[in-house]
Amino acid sequence: MTVSRYLREPQRVAGVTAQRIDAALALTGYTPNKHAGMLASGRSSVVAAIIPNIASATFAETVQGLTDILQPRGMELLLASTNYSVEREEEQMRAVLGWSPSALVVTGRRHTDAALAMMRQAQADGVPVLEMWDHDPADRSFVQVGFSHQAVGTMMAAHMLQQGHRDFGYVDSGVREDFRAHERAQAFVATITAAGARVRVCEAPRIEPMAAGRAAFTAMQKAGLPGAIAFASDNFAAGAYLGAIEAQIDVPRELALLGFGDFPISRQLPGGISTVSVSPYAIGQVCARQLLATWAALSEGRTPSRRHRVVAPKIVARRSSQGRGSPFNPP
Amino acid sequence: MTVSRYLREPQRVAGVTAQRIDAALALTGYTPNKHAGMLASGRSSVVAAIIPNIASATFAETVQGLTDILQPRGMELLLASTNYSVEREEEQMRAVLGWSPSALVVTGRRHTDAALAMMRQAQADGVPVLEMWDHDPADRSFVQVGFSHQAVGTMMAAHMLQQGHRDFGYVDSGVREDFRAHERAQAFVATITAAGARVRVCEAPRIEPMAAGRAAFTAMQKAGLPGAIAFASDNFAAGAYLGAIEAQIDVPRELALLGFGDFPISRQLPGGISTVSVSPYAIGQVCARQLLATWAALSEGRTPSRRHRVVAPKIVARRSSQGRGSPFNPP
DNA sequence: ATGAAAGCGCTAACAT
DNA sequence: ATGTTAGCGCTTTCAT
Fold first, then answer.
1. With a 7 Å cutoff on the CB, does A8 touch strand C?
2. Do A313 and A282 form a contact (C-beta atoms < 8 A)?
3. At a CB cut-off of 8 Å and minimum separation 6, what does A74 contact?
4. Which residues of chain A are within 8 Å of residue B53 when distances are taken between CB atoms?
5. For A262-314, how does the pLDDT look when each residue is reduced to its tens digit (9 = 90+)?
6. Stated in angstroms, how far is B232 CA from C7 C1'?
7. How far is CA A324 from the centre of its chain?
8. Closest by Cα among B221, B213, B216 to B249
9. For B311-325, how does the pLDDT look when each residue is reduced to its tens digit (9 = 90+)?
């Protein structure tokens, strides 16, 4: 009836009728059934997002960035988490696609074949598909919003080499399918090795991250400390830093540290922990804006842009990584 | 047709037919349309959750607790955030209820009248409604999963008084509609005052929480430090602690600190920060289990339990709050 | 064990 | 400016 029209295009019904409708709506406490609407129109107001872990501050911020832009536009967020398993990602993708979302946002560029097939199908059906937190210029299957973890690993190594170190440790994520962390680790190792320096890699234990960083530090200390350690995350680095303070190891003179993520704690600890700033909230926002642009293009019959959006990370050099004939602290 | 039956009750179709169906499903890459299913059956597999802020580690953990239990049961999570505004909560509630969720989980027990009406309506329609992160024995409108913030404020004050302090500071949340934080603050003040001691309250600035805690500390230092400060969150306390270290104030001898939340950093900082442990992940899990129990009861025609679930917080006394003739550190 | 018929609540296209 | 008709893709009930 007219009510349906009123709800979508209020200006197209007469003033008097509008009033009567308003009154009736208020009286009955009417809530439109979105499923029926979706079924009839073929459009839905849900965006599906699949992330590894909701409890991680990083992804939580990205999700907040997404909702902060999408929610005011009347879009709702259907959230699924994979626990860093591509199989669970596939399952979750199948489940969320059943809601014919208006867009699908996934994390990273590694998926099962079945998941890839679903993503391609969705995209072919005019549903924008975004891969966030990653970037591979060679891979143009889906729009990516993020950065190259390989480049970050290289950047981290270059920064540390620049400080004059020759003997390194790297504390990688202990989560097997955290592909992006492993890419950073590999690039770090490759760069260090190519420079003729030495690096020992270890995996952080799968416990609370700061405790894991502390444990990794203690283990390395037993085996003989390198001059510098880089980490898969700032939480690891912060734990190691606190361990070093306790062990009366002078940071950065005896031990340089470099984290990843630019978490608040890295700025707050005395002297600060050097890190890589990656803007999780911005990634979420850029994803959301990209979706809005794609929908707009699609609805106007234009071809939506398929350019990747690089959210460039950068080294934040604080005290923990400076020393040893560095450009900042000359000998 | 038979396919629909096969998907829900596989054992009720003949083996041969099942095979043919399987083949067809695989061939076409069929994904059932959940909207149509929902519309026809009146049941949906979505749980709607409304939380103040996704980016907060605390709520993110609660959400993870929810999904970890609901997702394996085939339930999906529709997530909305309110930014600590009851008006936005009302809007979001209206929006998510349009998806006829199988349950509605909201945060706290303060809502607009319209929101309350929707919650009552949903509950009357057989949709379980949960208020999480709060507990008021007197309020039995909806099942609550959480704890009394008033009790926590009292508990915090009692702990500090027990350490022998007489002059207090309290750093409250600067977010106006963070009702739960303000309840803790009020109870803290009431208890301190009732004991004949003194307390000055200030609000944390709305910046990054650790920086806010540090700023609050600095401000208090200018005005003359009390002997003990309690905080609305561990991040504030951690920031203040780091500020105190920098200012060479001895914690806990010159200044005792007590946080809230038991964040990892409180355990990691040297000596540890005393705090209140509140188990956000457990709250999410208990919510999920409560929903499962309610659905089970409803589907078997039993009356679901409406008992509140208290997830009891407790004081974690670390070094930052011990001293001044306390039972732990006698004079 | 399978099929046929009706309808869930809405939207779209077409009358009026 | 408003009402009418058909149908979105499933589930449900009832018949075969």
1. yes
2. no
3. A45, B95
4. 64
5. 999 999 999 999 999 999 999 999 999 999 999 999 988 899 999 999 999 99
6. 54
7. 33
8. B221
9. 999 999 999 998 754
Nucleotide nearest to B100 (CA to C1'): C9
Q: Which residues of A touch B267 (CB under 8 A)?
A: 210-211
* A179 confidence band (pLDDT: 50, 70, 90): very high
- In Å, the largest CA–CA distance within chain B is 83
Q: Do residue A184 and residue A261 come from a single domain?
A: yes
Same domain flag for B133 and B54:
yes
Using CA atoms, how far residue A245 sits from A156, A248, A315, B150, B242, in Å, is 23, 5, 23, 38, 14
Nearest residue, CB atoms, A55 vs list B60, B76, B118: B60
CB contact under 8 A, B268 and A74: no
| Same domain, residue pair B132 and B228 | no
Q: Has residue A323 got a pLDDT over 80? A: no
pLDDT of A204 over the 80 cut: yes
- Alpha-carbon distance values, A170 to A241, B67, B84 (Å): 14, 33, 40
Q: What protein residues sit with their CB closer than 7 Å to strand D?
A: A 1-2, 5, 12-14, 16-17, 36, 39-40, 42; B 1, 4-5, 7-8, 30, 32-33, 36-37, 39-43
Measure B198 CA to nearest chain A CA, in Å: 30
Does one domain contain both A158 and A239? yes
Residue B58 belongs to a domain with what CATH number? 3.40.50.2300
Q: How confident is the model at residue A325 (pLDDT cuts 50, 70, 90)?
A: very low
Point out the residue among A29, A208, A242 whose CB comes nearest to the CB of B117.
A29
Q: Strand C contacts (CB < 7 A) among A residues 34-93?
A: 36-37, 39-41, 43
Mutate to test the interface with A, among B25, B28, B34 (most CBs of A within 10 A): B34
Please check the confidence at residue A331 and state whether its pLDDT lies above 50.
Answer: no
Range of the domain at A188: 149-277+315-321
Count of domains for chain B: 3
Beta bridge partners of B129: B104
Tokens coding B276? 């209140």
Give the pairing of strands B228-231 and B256-258. Answer: parallel
Residue A96 has pLDDT above 90, yes or no: yes
In a domain, A329, yes or no: no
Q: Same domain for B11 and B54?
A: no
Output the pLDDT for position B324. 58
User: Per the domain annotation, does A65 fall within a domain?
Assistant: yes
Q: Where on strand D do bases come within 7 A of a protein Cβ?
A: 1-4, 7-12
Give residue A324's pLDDT band: very low, low, confident or very high (50, 70, 90).
Answer: low
Mean confidence (pLDDT) of chain A: 94
pTM above 0.85, yes or no: yes
Strands B76-81 and B46-51: parallel
CA closest to C1' of C12 belongs to A41
